[in-house]
Amino acid sequence: MWWVLWVMLVLAAAGALVLLALNLWRRSKAIGREMRELSRALERLGTASVGEHGRHRSAQTTYLPGPVRDAATLAAARATRERVAAERDEARGARLARAVTRWRSVGLVDQKA
Length: 113
What we know:
Low-confidence stretches: none
Radius of gyration: 31 Å
Order of helices and strands: HH
Structural class: mainly alpha
Helix content: 55-70%
Keywords: Membrane, Transmembrane, Transmembrane helix
Oligomer: single chain
Transmembrane segments: 6-25
């Protein structure tokens, strides 16, 4: 009687493998279609912007943010980034100081010498 159970289990496993293989086949076909569309789109864009080593020439130019791409926008963005970094450093230091104070109050770290 156990052989019926084992036959059913083997058939179920074989069916699951068939379904998994079918799913994998469909996904690989979809990826192949997407890759073909991507290659066609890249061909339409042209290869004029690609240098001799496959690097884009635009990577050699300086990035200027904003719709008008002026140097003032870049300077403002850098200043903002530096200001935010300084504020984060200050907040991190304040959190550390509060944590050390808490730790000292419960005896987790040595008192100041």
